[in-house]
Amino acid sequence: MKLAVVEGDGIGKEVIPAAVEILDAFEMDIEKVPVELGYGKWERTGSAITDEDIETLKECDCVLFGAVTTPPDPNYKSVLLTIRKELDMYANIRPIRPLPSVKGIHERNDFNFIIVRENTEGLYSGIEEIGDEVSTTKRVITRKGAKRIADYACKLANNRMKKLTIVHKSNVMKSDKLFLDVCRETATDTGIVHRDELVDSFAYNLITSPWNYDVIVTTNLFGDILSDMSGALVGGLGLLPSANIGDKYAFFEPVHGSAPDIAGQNKANPLATILSLKMLLEWHGDIAEAAILEEAIDSALNMGICTPDLGGKYTTSEVGNIIAKYIRTRLE
Ligand code: NAD
Ligand code: IPM
Ligand code: MN
């Protein structure tokens, strides 16, 4: 495997080395290609990502990515959005699953759902007119875009509980009627039990009764917001992994950002990135390694080895060291 490794900015520079140490513990045949991207690179060179960087990412089998800082500067083009569009990674897969010994906001931990977020259009179209008096962003829903994310979600649901929730706001935004119709048709055609919910009441239902959901499909910005919100169910933003998937490329990253408030202190939780690495291993077919990694994470958590966001006293690098050591011992 040829793997592009992007640390990015802020805590990306701390969580990625921890995940890479763990990957190295498996001694797999992987060529790692470091790629510098992000706000730091923009400050240094005037560009956050170049055409050559995109070519390098495309030449690799997949990408492990930390986080980047995205300033609200109209002249700054988001690195992540550029990559998602250029590599046409239309599905953003965000599993929400409790981990042993970590409490979220509920006593119950019998839930396990996946947010399938459309990743290339909606309010992230990038079609904007910015003025002093009026600024607009065009929300784009296409049949093709809705169909491919609906297909992805239905395939996933078919391998799970065959239960799909379509989340939209078609009462107000008629563009969502197309999204809803295409998702409904696809679910009906593939024999998936489905229902739909308006995003506002859905947000309430999801946070109060997460055990009622399995696969959730939604548009770009709703998926972004609902996934961070769901972090509260499992114990924090430091625990949410994700995969960006297209027909040709795959890209794995924590859901969280560069966390400037804690960057440089070696206290960021590396588990979101380590769980993203686990998704990468599964995607690549390294099922045994993924299972050992899960065992190692569970073992660390059961021994109280975690960062301060989970109430622990361990540093980012210590958590990485200990999980890597568990894997090396396990493989001896
Ligand atoms: P954030 O996710 O970076 O941080 C939100 C809060 O969660 C902060 O208090 C932070 O300390 C905490 N947090 C996040 N990850 C953590 C971890 N692993 N361990 C412990 N605590 C953690 O969101 P933000 O503050 O809104 O955004 C900061 C920057 O990151 C912005 O420039 C934003 O554009 C960017 N961002 C990037 C990505 C990405 O690269 N994928 C995602 C989201 C935000
Ligand atoms: C995410 C992030 C990105 C998004 C930002 C940084 C562009 O919040 O991956 O969830 O909005 O998709
Ligand atoms: Mn987000």
UniProtKB/TrEMBL annotation:
Needed cofactors: Mg(2+); Mn(2+)
Protein name: 3-isopropylmalate dehydrogenase
Class in the EC hierarchy, top level: oxidoreductase
Entry annotated with the keyword Lipid biosynthesis: no
Family recorded in the similarity comment: Belongs to the isocitrate and isopropylmalate dehydrogenases family.
Protein EC: 1.1.1.85
All residue ranges annotated as the Isopropylmalate dehydrogenase-like domain in the record: 2-323
The entry's keywords: Amino-acid biosynthesis, Branched-chain amino acid biosynthesis, Leucine biosynthesis, Magnesium, Manganese, Metal-binding, NAD, Oxidoreductase
SUPFAM superfamilies associated with the record: Isocitrate/Isopropylmalate dehydrogenase-like
InterPro entries linked to this entry: IsoCit/isopropylmalate_DH_CS, IsoPropMal-DH-like_dom, LEU3_arc
Summary of subunit composition and partner proteins: Homodimer.
